[in-house]
Amino acid sequence: MDDGMETTKLLRHEEEEEDEGDLKRRIWIESKKIWRVALPSLISRVSAFGTIVVTQSFIGHVSEIDLAGYALVQTLSVRFINGILLGMSSATETLCGQSFGAGQHHMMGIHLQRSWIVDLITLTILLPILIFGTQIYKLVGEEESIANSGGYISLWFIPFVYNYVFSLTIQMYLQAQLKNMIIAWLSGFQFAIHIPLSLLFVYKLNMGVEGAMLSLLMSSWFVVIGEFIYIFGGWCPNSWKGFTVAAFKDLVPVVKLSISSGVMLCLELWYYAVLVLLAGYMENAEVAISAFSICQNINSWEFMISLGFLGAGCVRVSNELGRGNAKVVTFSIKVLLGTSTVIGVFFFVLCLVFRKNISYLFTNDERVADTVSDLSLLLSFSILLNSIYPVLSGVAIGAGMQTTVAIVNLVCFYLIGIPLGALLGYLTTLQVKGIWIGMIGGVLTQTIAVVYMIWRTDWDNEVKKASERLTRFYLKSDEISELISN
Fold this sequence. Notes:
This protein has helices at residues 2-60, 64-101, 108-126, 128-131, 133-139, 144-176, 181-204, 208-235, 251-279, 285-323, 326-354, 366-386, 389-399, 402-426, 432-456, 459-473, 477-485. The protein is mostly helical and 486 residues long. The radius of gyration is 24 Å and the shape is globular.
C-alpha cells in the first residue's frame, strides 16, 4: 500500500516537473516573440524621443525663458498633434497586424497608404495650432515672455511634425511583419548624429535656439528617408506592391477606426499636457513649467520603453487573433505584463537613487533642480505605472477595442485625475506635487479599469470580430495588381 502511494507521489511529482518545464519553455518562446518586436520598437522610440529631450537640454543651457517656451510647445502643441497622429495611425497597427496574421500580406501596403492619406489631411488641418502658437499661449493665460518664445519655437516644429505622418505609420507597418529592426538601426544612427549636430550648431556656430531646432529637424527626417529607401527598394516584396488607387477606396471605415484609436491615445497623451498647463498658472510659472516638463520628459522618455511593449502587445494580439489563436493571446498578455513590470521596477529604483542629479542635465537653475528633486518620488511611481497601462493599451489596439478604452480614459483621466490634481494643486500647499498626485490617481484608476476589462474579455469572440474586420477590408492580390497597372 505504501509502495503504491509512493509511486503515485513520484508520478505526480514528475508530471509537475514536466508541467513546470513546459511552462518555462512556453514563456521562453513567447518572450523571444515579444522581444523581437519590443526591442527594435523601444530602441527607435527611445532614440526618437531622446532627440527631443537632448534638444530641450541644449535650449535649457541657452536660456531659461526659451527652456520654458520649448517645454510649452513640446508638451502642449506637439504632444497634442502627436497624440492625434499616433492615435489615427494606430488603426494601421490593428489592420496590418491582423492582415499579417491571416496571411493577407498584400493588403498591408494598402493599409499603409490609407494611413498616409488620412494622417496628411489631419495634420494639415491641425497646422494653425503651431502657426498661431503665441496667440494660443497668451489666450490660455501663459506669461507673455514664455508665450512669445513658445510661439517662435512652434514655427520650427512645423516641418518636424510632418515626419510623424511617415515615421509612425511605417514603424507600425514594419513591426506588424516583424521587420522593424531596420527602424532600430536608423533611430540609433539618428540619436548618434543628433548630439554632434547640436554641438556644432549651438556651440560651434553659436546659433542658439535656431541651431538646436535645425539639428532636430535634420536628424528626424534622416529616419524617414531611410525608411522610404527600405520599403521602395524592394525589402518588403510581399506587402508593398507599389502605389495604388485602391488606397482611396473604403476610406470611411478606416477613418472611423482611426478616430476611435485617436481618441483613445489622445486622451492619454493630452492628459499630461493639461497638467503642464495647470502648472503654468502657479506662482513663479517659469520654474513650475520647467521643473514639471523636465519630470514629464524623463517620465515620457521611460514611457518610450513601455511603448515598445505597447507595440509588441498590439502585434502579438493582432497576429494571433488573425490566426484564430485565442489561448495564445491570453498567455502572451501575461508574459507581456510580467516582463514590462520587471523593467518598470528597475527604473523606479533608478529614479529614486539619482533624484536631484537628473535635473542638472537640463538646467543650471537651482530653483528648478530643487523642484525636480521634490517631485522625484512621484515621478518614480509614475514610471512604475508606465510599465502596466501602455501594455494594456497595446492589447486593446491589437484587438480593435479602442472605443471602449477611449471611454475609460475619458472618465479616469478627465473626470478623476485632472479635477483631483487641480484641487490638490490650488487648494492645498502641495502646488505642483498636488497636480502630479492627481495625475497618478487618474492613471491608477485607468489601469485598474483596463485590467478588469481585459480580464473579462471573451477572446474567442474577439477572434470572430477580427475575421469579420479582415473580410470587410479584403481585396484580392490580382485586383490590386490591376489597380496599380491602371
